[in-house]
Each structure stands twice: as C-alpha cells, then as structure tokens.
Design goal:
Shape: globular
Bound molecules: 2-phosphoglycolic acid
Length: about 260
C-alpha cells in the first residue's frame, strides 16, 4: 500500500477549471460577477480557472480571494523566432504562476508529445511556474489493458530532469482521453487504483516523502453530480474540470461542498 486515507487528507483538495476555447471577455466578466457573490473562504481547497491567454489579465483582475488563474499551455522555448508562442518568462512577467501542460487537446491539435511536455515542464519550473501536467491513455490503450504501461512511460519521459526539490511544485492530472468531454468516466475503482499507481511511480522516482506531498488530480467528465464521490477516493487530490467549470454557479457549489467535506 502506498498511502493511507490519513495521508490523503493531509493534502489540500484542488478544483481546477479548464475553460478551453470558451468565454470571451464579457463571459469572463459575467462569470466572476456570479462566482464572487457565491464564493466562500476555503482553507483546505485550492481552486482556479484557466481562460485563454487573452482572458488571463481580465480573470486575474476580476477574481477575488484565493482563486488561481492558470494558462492552458506554454511554449517549451524561452524566447526566439517562434511565432505564435508564449514563453514561461512571459507568463511569469504577466503574474501567472500556474500552467496546464500536456493537455490531450494540445497534444492532439498542437503536436506536443511527451518529450516536448518534458521541456515545457522544465522551463516552467525554472521560471517558477507550477505545471499542471496531464497524462492519460487512449481508448485503444485502455481496451488493450495498457494503461499502467502508458502512464509509466509518460511519467518517465515527462519527469526526466525534474529534481526532487522541483517535483513537489508539479501537479499531475490523470485524464483518460476517452473520458474527456464524453460524459463517460472510469469506475471509482479504476480512478483510485490508477491515481494510486501514479503515486507509486512517483515514489520510485522521488521516494515516499516527496511523492506523498504531490498532488494528483482526476479529470474527464467531472461535474457537480459526480465530483463528491470522486474526490473522496484515496489518492485523488482533486479534479481538473472542463465543461462543468464554465458555470459559475456549479463551480461555486462544488468548491463550497468540497470545502465542507474536508472539514468533516
Ligand atoms: P471535461 O474536460 O471535464 O469537459 O471532460 C476535462 C479536461 O479536458 O480537462
């Protein structure tokens, strides 16, 4: 056994919303007008939102309290002739301290493979940006029962060169590709055992003490109706939420419920 329920409870819970290619400036304004009204102070829950690059400044300006504002992607290059890219230096300059890296949609549409994700993670960390690193298997790999092998290979490549002192600044999101935006989630047994497995791989890289501090999220078709049962699972430290994070009412409700749950 890698960790205990007690260990699970010593880590904060993370509720992160990925807004993908949604929300223009007026939508962001409306979101925070609603969200800020319903927001409660949370002590054990870290929460945040990832708008597009163009929405980052507005979101950072409008958010109240503890919400973190994350970028959805970043270049693996620091500067140079790379048209269309944004570097970790520029994110830092902009006051952004968190960035999703390796989301399956950036892998699919922008061609980021694990080697590129590794470079992004390293450049983020050396610029004090905390990466939220997405990993997960395809439906074919799932059906072929290759999930653990795929996760191990992804983690090996992505964490190459990440020092133990940097590892605790990384958040990992286990997002099976077949669960993203499909309304289908793995079973609770699968989620808990795979998040536990990820932690076991991290123990093999960094030892128990560091691995037990690392945050492991589940993502893929999480919503206000299923989140509480997922978040209660051993080794699941929170969720990365896509579609359901677009609603201020739902997100405020989720954060409130998780916060109450952590205190019981
Ligand atoms: P979903 O997206 O919640 O809409 O399935 C999750 C994600 O892409 O991170």
């Amino acid at each position: 056994m890698v960790s205990t329920i007690q260990d699970n409870m010593t880590r904060k819970k993370y509720i992160l919303g990925n807004w993908k290619l949604y929300k223009n400036l007026s939508d962001i304004t409306a979101f925070f007008a609603d969200f800020n009204k319903q927001q409660t102070k949370t002590s054990n829950v870290v929460y945040g939102f990832a708008p597009t690059y163009l929405g980052l400044a507005l979101a950072a300006n409008l958010k109240k309290g503890q919400a973190i504002i994350m970028a959805q992607d970043v270049s693996d290059k620091l500067e140079g002739s790379y048209t269309g890219q944004i570097s970790p230096i520029q994110l830092k300059d902009f006051g952004i301290k968190h960035c999703i890296v390796g989301h399956s949609e950036t892998r699919k549409f922008l061609g980021a493979n694990d080697e590129v994700v590794n470079k992004k993670v390293l450049t983020c960390l050396s610029n004090k940006i905390k990466p939220i690193i997405c990993i997960g298997e395809s439906l074919t790999q799932y059906k072929r029962k290759q999930t653990r092998h795929v996760l191990t290979q992804q983690l090996k490549t992505i964490f190459a060169g990440v020092k133990p002192t940097q590892a605790t600044n990384c958040v990992i999101a286990y997002e099976p590709l077949w669960a993203i935006g499909t309304g289908i989630t793995p079973t609770h047994e699968e989620i808990t055992s795979l998040c536990g497995y990820i932690r076991k791989v991290l123990v093999s890289f960094y030892g128990k003490k560091i691995a037990e501090q690392m945050i492991i999220l589940y993502g893929g078709s999480v919503n206000k109706d299923n989140i509480m049962s997922i978040i209660a699972l051993k080794d699941v430290d929170g969720c990365l939420i896509g579609k359901a994070s677009l609603s201020a009412v739902d997100m405020a409700k989720i954060i409130k419920e998780v916060n109450i749950w952590t205190r019981n």
